[in-house]
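Weekly structure sync - notes
Attendees: PM, LS, DV (DV joined late)
Agenda: review two folding runs queued last week.

Item 1: First target. Sequence and structure tokens pasted below for the record.
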Amino acid sequence: MGLLKPLTWDLWVTSACFFVFIGFVIWTLEHRTNEDFRGPRSHQVGTMFWFSFSTLVFAQKERIVSNLARIVVIIWLFVVLILTQSYTASLTSMLTVQQLNPTITDINELIKKGERVGYQYGSFVYEFLIKSMKFDESNLVKYESPEELDELFSKGGITAAFDEIPYMKIFLAKYCSKYTAVGPTYKFDGFGFVFPKGSPLVADVSRKVLSVTEGAKLLEFEKAWFGQTTSCPELTSSVSSNSIGLNSFWGLFLIAGVASFVALVACITTFLYENRNALINLNPPSSIWRKIKAMATRFDDKDLRSHTFRKSDQLPDKGIKAMDAVSASPATPTSLQVHQAF
């Protein structure tokens, strides 16, 4: 169902309805004058749907002879072009994973360039940066809260920040769409418990500490304090907001719908006007349904006055006349010879 996400459900439904409607309009405009839209009922229905949906890939092979149908097709192809291009762009943006690429990943580069870095006030990280990492004390900037750290990054006060993993998880959970953590991770001696020599509690406490650190209990603590976030909510909402809705295309659908409706009304009006005598000559007692059925039967017939059928009918006639002339010419001398002999 991921392929449906680029468009909202109301746009999918509207597009499907318009494909069917445009197919019906083109069939109505071409049925009486175009052999490609004639034939058995099942063939006509299949041609109607095929022509409409094949415009998605511009693969329609049926020729269009009606000027009204040509106008409708041109407008509809423009709508389909915009719709398919928008779908492709939206799908591409959704399939492209939005990743945060840090500008600097090497600590030595930070030291070499003299970049300002942040640390949490009161943390042992301050001494680690000065004594172990050899940072210049003047390039260290303290912060006391995640909000203050975000402000330092936003205003360009620091390039990177160093802190303990639990505090960094809290910060990244709040600002996951703006920052990311990079390695390496440095390990330090943790907290310890001091007991008198020979204390019987040493073995019990050591077993309990190992059961917590090496078992699932530590993960439960982490989930309870930091939560379990598999994806960034802000990134997820931004991706979902990329779905294109009907409000982006209502203008194009309105133009296509009005043009198709006007062409359909013009075609039906012209047909009724040209066959007004047949409609008038029906028996007065005829019901409305009988008149509609009679007009539908007449509409199903070919319009022999159309230029498409006039061209096709002229070619066989010329061939027959030429054959008659050729076969008749030898008979003249024969009849004369018989007459003279007689």
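Item 2: Second target, run right after the first with the same settings.
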Amino acid sequence: MQGGIKAIFSHGSMMPMNTLLLHVRVATPVMRIHQSALPARMEEHGFESTTISDVLSAKGKAADGSWLWCTTDETVYDAVKSMTQHNVGALVVVKPGEEKSIAGIITERDYLRKIIVQGRSSKSTKVGDIMTEENKLITVEPNTKVLKAMQLMTDKRIRHIPVIKDGGMIGMVSIGDVVRAVVDEHLAELSRLNAYIQGGY
């Protein structure tokens, strides 16, 4: 029995087993060459291409939370009231009369930790007293990739991040905006791969 499996018949003649194995091995690189020959178009629209600028464009300038702000001398109560009315979790803070210069940011977390937990009055406490100041802010630029922004927000445990360009703020995105963009990018990538498989590229 053992002697019978040491050779294989091929067109009526005996073919040594090591010859057959050699033929199998040389066929493998052909698949690798085929898989690496992806069209340049797919690389142009490759995964992880969405930027923060794309997220801001999708939100639009009129979107709630994109341009909401308060001043340092407003009360925390008024700031929280504004957040509630616009259904957002953070406001950009500016100095009175200097709307284009960001002074910091105030979030729901600031209100809970620095007002509620400490038993302070939101109506007598100024936003400037509890906000996260500018020099401590975590920011991104318009060309930052959404995956990098999401990692940054996760690592720093923040849910809102200002977008800065040329020293000025042009918008703000939330963790919800970023996650939504990542999901959309995944779906778009699956659609591109499906089109490629079916010959759309």
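Discussion on item 2: Strands lie at 7-10, 13-16, 69-71, 90-95, 98-107, 132-133, 160-165, 168-174.
Action: LS to circulate a short write-up before next sync.
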